[in-house]
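Troubleshooting log. The previous structure file for this entry was overwritten by mistake, so regenerating from the original sequence record. Sequence copied from the archived sheet and checked twice against the printout by T.R.
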Amino acid sequence: MERGRRPVVVTGFGPFGEHAVNASWIAVQELKKLGLGDDVDLHVYEIPVEYQKVQSIIPGLWKEHSPQLVVHVGVSGMATTVILEKCGHNEGYKGLDNSRFCPRSHCCVEGGPKCIDSVIDMDAVCKRVSTLGLDVTVTISKDAGRYLCDFAYYTSLYQSHGRSAFVHVPPLGKPYTAEQLGRALQAIIEEMLDVLEHSEGKINCRHEH
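Regenerated output below.
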């Protein structure tokens, strides 16, 4: 049976604060040049650093593309590695966005679960990517920072029942180039798709009997 092309959506963020050039969007554009192989339809989007825009754009992407996976990429000024985030958090959003706004409830989805984990086993992805000999170090985190990155991740996880991922990258040149980040994203997302497919294969096998 021939498989169709799998839609995958990858987002980066626009400028904010001291990040006049957002490394996440630069890295995503590098990934777009590299692609994810012939059987993946890659769609990339730049998301503004605004809570309300995130809340309208992310559900729209799921509706438009019915993607197999959505990967959000954000920059962290404190990061010195490429970080795979395991979960998104619902509460604690007090930082003002680019339009000087923050949610009155300080939460993402009122009444939603406190945390949502990605269905992707980030430890497995991290281990696999670390054996590929990339010139980039990949690590794991359970705290995406309670700002737009975490907010977008939770919004996406809630929308997709966990079929989302979040990757934090350091600012450009601290220490990685745009090309290094693009190649790292390519390797990470290919492994994520593989891990996702295998875990779903097991689920489908159970359902078929």
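The chain is about 40% helix and 20% strand. Archived copy saved in two places this time.
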